[in-house]
Task: structure prediction
Amino acid sequence: MISYEFPLNERIRTLLRLEDLFQRASYFASKDDAEEHHVALTSLFEILEVGGRADLKSELMQELERQKQHLDSLRNNPAISQQALDSVLVDIEKAISDMFLTSGRTGQELRENEWLMGIKQRSAIPGGVCEFDLPSYHYWLNQGADVRRLDLGEWLAPFLPIRNGVQIILKLLRESGKTTNQVAHQGVYQQTMAGRLAQMLRIRLDSSYDCVPEISANKYALNVRFAASIGTQRRTSVDDVKFELTFCNL
Result:
């Protein structure tokens, strides 16, 4: 099965982008090669752009507080595992506390690091971080892997409270939805929203289908079109497609 997630507002779009960037940065930072650590650093620069928005931290804290109040209301509900509920509430409280303790704009330490900002500026230029352009960066890439990993961990650390908050919110969002089985006849599926609220849609289909979903949605209707794409050729229509559809909303 292949899963496709489609955000329906700008806030969820930002959270999904941050999740992807954090996963990429953490993955490549854990490796040994200089080339992999270069990818980790460029991912960090992207996190700085996406996650350094002044109001992002306050938005995350407000959403986490809202979820905490909602989950608190579920205490003593026999249909809810109290152990699982307590675990989630502890994670939420820690995430809120960690973000509250971080002062100022997230990533300000990196913005004040002239060496890193020089690399960030040059990395926007194709081939701009060659050794003759940035000899000091070339020197860093030739340090031991442990040295580079230590530096990358230090530079990523200010963003960890944001990362944890994003992970919790997206986990709750994904678990909020109810999944139904649908069929797109000749690759087309339409549904009226009828007042249904959703912040994200998830579509899952068997990987044997040689097609990808294209979604357009508003408060009135949902339209899904499955289109086949073979290399650089034009997209073509497909036969009936069975898929799972989930509306996710906090």
In short: The chain has a mean pLDDT of 90. The chain has two domains: 2-171, 177-248. Residues 10-29 form the longest helix (20 residues). The CA atoms of residues 10 and 199 lie 9 Å apart.
